[in-house]
Amino acid sequence: MAEETRKIIHLDMDAFYASVEQRDDPSLRDKPVAVGGSRERGVVMAASYEARRFGVRSAMPSTTARRLCPELLFVKPRFEVYKEVSRQIRVIFLEYTPLVEPLSLDEAYLDVTTNLKNMPLASEIAREIRARILEQTGLTASAGISYNKFLAKLASDHRKPNGQFVIRPEKGPLFVESLPVGKFHGIGPATEAKMQRLGIHTGADLKAQSLEFLQQNFGKSGAYYHAIARGQDDRRVVPDRPRKSIGSETTFPQDLGRPIDIEEGVLSVLDDVWSYCERTGTAGRTVTVKIKYADFQIVTRSRTLSSPVGSRIDLEQASIELVRSIFPLQKKVRLLGVSLSNMAARTEAERAPPQLTLGL
């Protein structure tokens, strides 16, 4: 018996952080807004649609964004507010299906093949969810509906903002062929550039390549690229997916040039990391410190421990010893970050013996 065609929705909030700020501050409405950074330093975390019309994008240096849009208004992020809105949205999702896979605070996959409302059409479910999000939060969302995750995510970009788009099974392969490979989820700028060097510019170009050719040039990802070029994606919607890492970073108002300031800077970014560990009952074995110098060069230092970090003091100690490996300083530092990966349940960490001083 043939497997039932799945019904997958990708819900994506429209310019989420910036939209929350515009909702809560009427003076920001209909104006170009950037969340994060400042007029002089840092990077844009999110941009309103008014700012995007000028070419402002997330991860763009603030100075570049200001040059593109001199009227850009910078707003400090309020993560507790974003998390609360995300929680409200998640509650709505779970009224329709338990199969919800969050990708971030502002987007998620839903498998509604069998749903709690017994609604036959995924497009109607998406429309109803979007209406309820607007009613309860005052924010708009876009949705993509298809028979797999890859196409659902492509579809959600097709009618942004505040729209939805369906890619039906008979249309999927043809839809993929017409798109530039840079639009594909899972193909970043570096991979896109490599594909273009190989003469692969569109989904049709990608489909023309053999599995062997793609594996030879892209390793393990070759099989994935071979499948999505044909509109195929067997990945399931996985609820409550374990987080692989947790990190926090900050750009300082002035570049740091003294070791004592560097060490204090590292300690200042630990709160978010450790509060997540305490809130979720998890911890990580690998500690990584990220350093961005004043000339924008980035270096990282990592250490994998024999057991998960068991306390904030252990995390502080590991992070400080890692950052000390860049001393004596050759140039000033503008950004510092700390992350934990190789996550495990805290029960394991609690059983672990106290960490000894790390030798580098």
Automatic annotation (TrEMBL):
Keywords carried by this UniProt record: Cytoplasm, DNA damage, DNA repair, DNA replication, DNA-binding, DNA-directed DNA polymerase, Magnesium, Metal-binding, Mutator protein, Nucleotidyltransferase, Transferase
Localization (cell): Cytoplasm
Coiled-coil segments: none
InterPro entries (UniProt xref): DNA/RNA_pol_sf (IPR043502), DNA_pol_Y-fam_lit_finger_sf (IPR036775), DNA_pol_Y-fam_little_finger (IPR017961), DNA_polymerase-Y (IPR050116), DNApol_IV (IPR022880), IMS_HHH_1 (IPR053848), Rev_trsase/Diguanyl_cyclase (IPR043128), UmuC (IPR001126)
Site (Substrate discrimination): Y17
Cofactor: Mg(2+)
Domain named UmuC: residues: 8-188
Enzyme's top EC category: transferase
Active site: E107
Highest taxon, organism lineage: Bacteria
HAMAP family, per database record: DNApol_IV
Protein name: DNA polymerase IV
Source organism of this protein record: Enhydrobacter aerosaccus
Protein encoded by which gene: dinB
